[in-house]
Amino acid sequence: MTIDALRHWRRDLHRLPEAAWCEFRTSSLIAHRLNELGFTVMLGDALLASSLVMGRQIDVAAQKERALRQGANPDWLARIENLTGVMGLWDSGRPGPTLGFRFDIDAVEVDEDGGEQHQPNQEAWQSHNPGWMHACAHDGHTAIGLVLAERIMAQAEQLGGRIKLFFQPAEEGCRGGKALAAGGQLDDVDALLALHIGIHAASGELVLNPTEFLCSTKFDVEFMGESAHAGLEPNAGHNALAAACMATTAMLGIPRHRDGMTRINVGQLSGGSGRNVIPGQARLQGETRGASPALNDYVFGQVQRIVEGAALMQGVSYLIRKQGEAIGINNSPELIEELMPLADAMALNTVHTRRFGASEDAGFLIERVQRNGGQAAYLILGADLSAPHHHPAFNFDETVMAHGVGLLERFIQHRLAVS
Amino acid sequence: MTIDALRHWRRDLHRLPEAAWCEFRTSSLIAHRLNELGFTVMLGDALLASSLVMGRQIDVAAQKERALRQGANPDWLARIENLTGVMGLWDSGRPGPTLGFRFDIDAVEVDEDGGEQHQPNQEAWQSHNPGWMHACAHDGHTAIGLVLAERIMAQAEQLGGRIKLFFQPAEEGCRGGKALAAGGQLDDVDALLALHIGIHAASGELVLNPTEFLCSTKFDVEFMGESAHAGLEPNAGHNALAAACMATTAMLGIPRHRDGMTRINVGQLSGGSGRNVIPGQARLQGETRGASPALNDYVFGQVQRIVEGAALMQGVSYLIRKQGEAIGINNSPELIEELMPLADAMALNTVHTRRFGASEDAGFLIERVQRNGGQAAYLILGADLSAPHHHPAFNFDETVMAHGVGLLERFIQHRLAVS
Amino acid sequence: MTIDALRHWRRDLHRLPEAAWCEFRTSSLIAHRLNELGFTVMLGDALLASSLVMGRQIDVAAQKERALRQGANPDWLARIENLTGVMGLWDSGRPGPTLGFRFDIDAVEVDEDGGEQHQPNQEAWQSHNPGWMHACAHDGHTAIGLVLAERIMAQAEQLGGRIKLFFQPAEEGCRGGKALAAGGQLDDVDALLALHIGIHAASGELVLNPTEFLCSTKFDVEFMGESAHAGLEPNAGHNALAAACMATTAMLGIPRHRDGMTRINVGQLSGGSGRNVIPGQARLQGETRGASPALNDYVFGQVQRIVEGAALMQGVSYLIRKQGEAIGINNSPELIEELMPLADAMALNTVHTRRFGASEDAGFLIERVQRNGGQAAYLILGADLSAPHHHPAFNFDETVMAHGVGLLERFIQHRLAVS
Amino acid sequence: MTIDALRHWRRDLHRLPEAAWCEFRTSSLIAHRLNELGFTVMLGDALLASSLVMGRQIDVAAQKERALRQGANPDWLARIENLTGVMGLWDSGRPGPTLGFRFDIDAVEVDEDGGEQHQPNQEAWQSHNPGWMHACAHDGHTAIGLVLAERIMAQAEQLGGRIKLFFQPAEEGCRGGKALAAGGQLDDVDALLALHIGIHAASGELVLNPTEFLCSTKFDVEFMGESAHAGLEPNAGHNALAAACMATTAMLGIPRHRDGMTRINVGQLSGGSGRNVIPGQARLQGETRGASPALNDYVFGQVQRIVEGAALMQGVSYLIRKQGEAIGINNSPELIEELMPLADAMALNTVHTRRFGASEDAGFLIERVQRNGGQAAYLILGADLSAPHHHPAFNFDETVMAHGVGLLERFIQHRLAVS
C-alpha cells in the first residue's frame, strides 16, 4: 500500500533529521533505493555546481561517522564524497520528453516538542537528533519522491521519455537550490514540478499558482584589519570593528525603493579580541529582501558598495559571502492549465492563486528550466497541521502524501504514456 | 633562612595561580598563616567595599570547590564567604604610628611556557591551572608579605604602634584596589608602602619614585532593545546593535585634549541573534586612558554621554559597568627621603625617577592614605627577568625577594622601634 | 457677469502674488470686500491659533509697507496686526445649519515665465513680485470665494442658517491649515467644502473623492554647541556639526514599516564657521512622509528621538521646529452623495475616485469638522492647464471658476434654502 | 632716511591691503620699484609653479580693475597676467654666493578697528578695503624688502655674488609658499632668510631659532551625487550629503598617534538643496595638523582614504582639494651662528629658541634651499604690538623695520663684500 510505504519512509526520516548539507544518511538511503529500483544515480559534483554552494561549514568526517552510526547505507555513504543530494535518472529508451521532480530533504534547527500530545512521541518516531527536526515537512516530500520512484518503475513499460527525480539538499536558508540549478542536470528538463506540504492550505486543497515569493539574499561579511595595542600605538591598528559598525549604520540607511517593499537587516555582529586591543577582525551576518528580484538586487547591490567603502575607510580588507539566496517564482501558465483537470479528477479542491509570503530556493530550478524553454511549477499540497511550520509541535496529515504521489503519477502518465 | 621561606611560598603559589577574585586557596593559606603567627585576620566585607568591586563574574561555589581540591585551608575557606583578600593586623599595644604594606595576590590569563628552558618546568613548580600563570610576580609579592609577617613577630617586643598587611585581590585589570581603598582599613594608616618586582629595573636596583602611571577606566556597555522579525515587522524592533555601532563610531571620535595624551578603544563588540531578527541586545567592552586623572575623566565622561545618547537614538536601554580603574600615583616626598638611606644601607642601587608607563590600582590605596594625611609610596624592586611581564616565559631572580623583605623590615624598625 | 468678476479678481491677485504668511495686500482686499458686502470679518488671533503657526519667519513691517505700496486697503491693513488670513461670517438670523467654505490665498516661490506664449504676459497681468507666482491657482480659489460672497448676499433673503468663508493663508508648505483648524472657528461648521482647480482633471470634470493624500511633516533642526579652536583646544568644543551628521546618518536608518510606505529625507544641512574652528552650530531641513498619519507619526517620532540622542552624544542643545504638516483626507460619504446630483445638474462630468498623490493642509480643517460631527469634503475642480502646477508657465482655463461658484452656490441653496 | 622710507611704504600698503592672490596693486608697485632700481624682475609662471597654487578662486579682471583704480602701476599691472608675486634679481657680475630674502605681501580678512585709539585712524592711513587689513605685519615685511633693495643698490660696487628678493603672495592660509618653492628660483640660493615682525617678541629682540612650527594641511572636499525626489523615488538618488556626514564622522575617529600631537577638524559642511530632494551635492572644509610632517601626513592620509570610502558607500564621486599647506621649519645651525654676532653688533637682544606655535609656509622655501645644500633660517624680529596678530586693533612699533633692514644688510655685507 502506497500510504504505508509513505508513512514508513516519512517516519524513518523524521526520527533522524539531518541539517542542511549534512544529509548523509538520508542521501545514502535515497541513493540505495533509487539504484535498487533501477534508476541511474548521480551525486556530488556531477549534480551540484560546488562553487555556488552557500552556507556550508561542516565537518564532513564527523557527519559521515554520525550518519553511519545512524544507519546510513555504507556503500553509498562512501560514494558521497562531500556534497549531499541525489538525482535518480530513468530513461525509457523510447522517445518522449524529460520530466523533472524536486524533493527537498533537509531538516530545520528546531527542538522537537517533548509533550505527550505530540503524535511522534506517542508513536516513538520523534527526532533523535537533538536540536534538529523535520518541522517543515521535507520528510514528507522525500517520502513522496521515493514512493513515486516505485510507481514509475511499476509502469515503466507503459512510459516513454525520461524522468529525473531531484532530491535537493539544503533548502533551509535557501542554500542549495542555486548550486543544483547551475549543476546542469535541469537543462534538458521539459517540465519540472516541485511541491510543498502545508503552507496555508488544508488537506484536500491544491494551490496551483502560489504567489509573492520573497526574493532574498543572506550574506556574511568579514572585515580583516590589523590589531594594535590601543594604549601604546593606536595609529598602528586598522580597525575592523569600526568598519563593521560604519557598514552596519550605512546599510540601515539604504534608501527605500519607489517600486515596492525592501528590507535590510544586520542580525549579528561580533568583532575584536581584548579590551585594550584595536580590533583586527569583525564579522557580521545580514540579509536583504525585496518584493521582486530587482528590488532585492537593488538592496544587495548597495550592501556590496557599502561594505567596500567601509573597508576602505578603515584600511581593512573584506570578504562578502552569500549564505543563501532565493528568487521569485512564476509558474508556467500552460502547466497550471494542464494540472487543473488532473487534480479535479482526483477530487482535489484546486485553488488558483494564494500568497506564499516566504522564500523558496526552488525558484532557481524553476527559472533554469523556464529559461531553457521548459515549463515549471511550484505547487502547494494542502495539509491540516498540528502547529505552524518550524514550530516544535509541527506535524501534518500524512494522508496528503498519497495525493502528492497520485498527482505526480497522473502528470507522468499524461505526458509520457506510450499511446 | 628567609630566602628558603620566600622560595617555598613563591613556588607553591606559582604552581596554583588563581584568577582575580578567585584567590580562594591563596587567601585561605594567607589567613591561616597570619592567624597562626598572631595577627588578627580581616576578610570580606570588613575589608572591601563590595559595592565598588569591579570586573567580577565568578561561580563562587565552583571556585571554592577547586580551591579545596588544590589544598586550600578548609577552615579559613569556609570563613571566606564571597570576596577574596586578607588583611592581617598586628597591634603592639604600645603607642606609635600605624604602618601599612600592600601585596597583590592574583595571577594573569597567560598559558605558561612548556619548554625545557623555563625554570619552573625544570623544577616542577610550573602552573597547574591551565591558562593562568603568575606572570606578573604577584607570587613573589605575596611571599614577601608572608615572610615579612614572620619577621615582624620575631621582633614584636622591640616594636610599638601597629602594622597592617594588606593582601589585595584582583590587581590585574585594576579591579580590586578601589574597593579595598574604600573599605576603610587604610584610613588610620600613617605610612603605606607597596612594591612591585621587575618593571624596567635590574636586580639590585630600587626605584624610589616611579612616574607616569596611566589613568584608565575599563568599562562594559550593554544595550537592551527589542527583537523583531526583520522581514515581517522591522518597525517593531528597537535595534540594540545599531545603538552599539553608533556609540562605537562616536566614541572613536571623542576629541583629543589640549592638555595631553588620551586614548579610547572599543576592544570587543557583539550583538544580535539570528540573521533575520532585529538585534535586541548588544554588548561592548572598552577602555579609556589619560595622562592624568582629569584627562581620563574627560574621555570617560564623554563615553557616558555618548552611550546614553546612542541608546536614546534607538529607543533602547543601557547599562555601563566599570570593570576596572586606575589612577595616577605620586609618592610622598618625605617617604622617598626616608627610604633612601635605608636602601643605601642595604647597598641597593637606588634610582630616583623612572617611567612606569602602565596602570596600577595601588593608586587608590596611596591616594586614600595621602588624603587622610598619611604618607605613601610605590616602589620598584628591581629584578632580572627571563622574559617581560605577562609573557609565558616570565620568571624573575628570586633573590630580590630578600631585598624586599629587608627594606620593609628596616622601614618598620625605623618607624616603630621602641627606643 | 460672474465670469468677468472672477477674471477681474483672479488677475488682480495674479499680478501681485504674496508668499505664505505675507498675504497682507490680499487679506486687506478680502476683508474690505467681505465687510462691504455685509459679512462680519474675523482676523488674526481670533481666527488662527498662533502657537501652531508653522514656517513663518517674516519681517511684518517690511511686508506691510510693500503691501501698502501695492494697493492694500489701508484701514484693513492696519487692523491686520501680524497674522494674515480672513474669515467672513454671514448669519441669516434664521434657524439652519452652518456651512463653511475654504479658499487658500498664498502664492509659490516660482519665477513666472517671461515668454510671449504665456497668456499673462500677452495681457499684462503677469507677476510683479519677482520670484513669486500664483502657479497653484490660489488666485482662482480666492476669486471664487469673493464672487461666492456676492452671490450669497444676492439671495440672502431666501437662505437660513449661517455661512463662514475661510480665506486661509500659507497653504504652500502645509503651514497654515493646522493653526486655522485649531483656531476654533470650524467647530460649529456642519458641512465644509474645499476645492482645488486643476490636479489631473480636465475642464468640465469634478472629482468628488480624491484619495491618497500624503501625510507629511516638514521640520528644521538646529543644533547649538560650543565653538573652540580646533588646534589649540579641541576638547573645549561641543561639536554641533558632528551631532547633525550623526543625526542625519541615523535618520536615514529609520526602519521601514510593516504597514506601508514611509519616507525620510534630510534635504539640507549646513554647519560650522571657519575651517579651524570646532563647529558651534548646525542646521538641517528634513521631511517625513507616510501613507497614513500613523506611518508618518512613526517616522517623525523616531526623528525626534534621534535628534535628542545625537545632541546628547555631543553635549549640544537642539531645537526641532515643525515647518509644515499635512494629514490625510477622507471625504464624508454623505456629502459626496449629496454633491453628485448637484454636479450632474450642472452637466459636470463627475469622477468618483482619483489619486491625489500630494499633500494638502485642508486635511486639518476637514478632520476638525468631522471630529465634531460635521461633514466635509475636498473636491477637484477640473481645468485645462497650460503647464503643470508650480511650473513657471502654469495657467488654467478661467471659465472653470464659474463652475466652482455654481457648485458651491447650489450646495448652499440645497442646504439653506428657506422653504 | 631709511625709517621714513620704511614708514612711507608700510603705510601706503596698509591703506590698501589686498587679499591672498589679489595683490595686484602691491605687486605692480614692487615690480616697478625693483625695475627702477636696476633689478631684473620675474613674475607669474616664471616664478611660481601654477599647478601647486592653492586656495585661489578669484576674479582676475575685477581685481585688476580695482588695483588700477587704487593706484597700481599700469605697465606692470599689464605684465602680471594672472599670478601675483614678484622676484627681483641683482647680479653683481662678480663671483660669489647667491643670497635670497623672502617677504610676504598679502593681507588678512579682518575688519580694521575704527576707534580713535587706533593709530592708523589718527593719521588716516587705515584700510580702505573694507573687511581686509594688514593685521599680520606683511606691510612691514614688504617695506623692509623694498628699502633693502635700495640699500643693496647703494653699495652695489662693494658686493659680489647675486641677490634674489622674493615677494611672496598668499602666505595667509599657507597657500603660496609651496608653489613658490616649486617654481625653481630658490634652487641656486646658497642662503635664504625670512623674517616675521612681532610674534611673542618685544621691540629690540631677535629670535634666531623659533621652534614648534605646526605642520598642517587645509583641504576642501566636494561630493557629487545625484538628486532625486525624496518622496517619489528615493532609490534614484546618490546621497552626497550622507557621504559627507559619514566622512565627517569617520574623520573625527582617526586614531591618535603614538608619536605626538595630531588634530583633525571639519570646520564647515553644507549640502543639499530642497527639503524634499535627496541631496545631490555636499561640500566640507577641514584641516589636519601634526607636531611633525609625518604626523600630519598620517592624519591627512587617513582623510583621503575616508573620503574615498565614504563616496564609494553612497555611490557618489568626490574631489579633494588642498587649500593650504605648511610644514615644519628647522633653521640651519651654521646660519644661526653666523647671525648671532651680526645681531649683537646691532645691540639686538638675541633670543635663541622660542616656541612659534603656528603655521608658516616659508617652511617650503626653507626646506627647498636646505635640500639643495643651502642654508636657511626664519627669524622673529621682535616688535611691541598694540594688539595680537589678526586682531582689528593690531599695530606694531614701526621702528623695528629699521632693525630688519640693518640685520639683512649686514648679512649681505658679511657674505658678499668684495674684499
UniProtKB/TrEMBL annotation, chains A, B, C, D:
A Pfam family reported for this protein in Swiss-Prot or TrEMBL: M20_dimer
Superkingdom to which the source organism belongs: Bacteria
Cofactor note: The Mn(2+) ion enhances activity.
Domain Peptidase M20 dimerisation: 218-308
GO annotation terms (biological process): folic acid catabolic process
GO molecular function terms noted in the UniProt entry: dipeptidase activity; metal ion binding; para-aminobenzoyl-glutamate hydrolase activity
Protein name, as recorded: M20D family peptidase
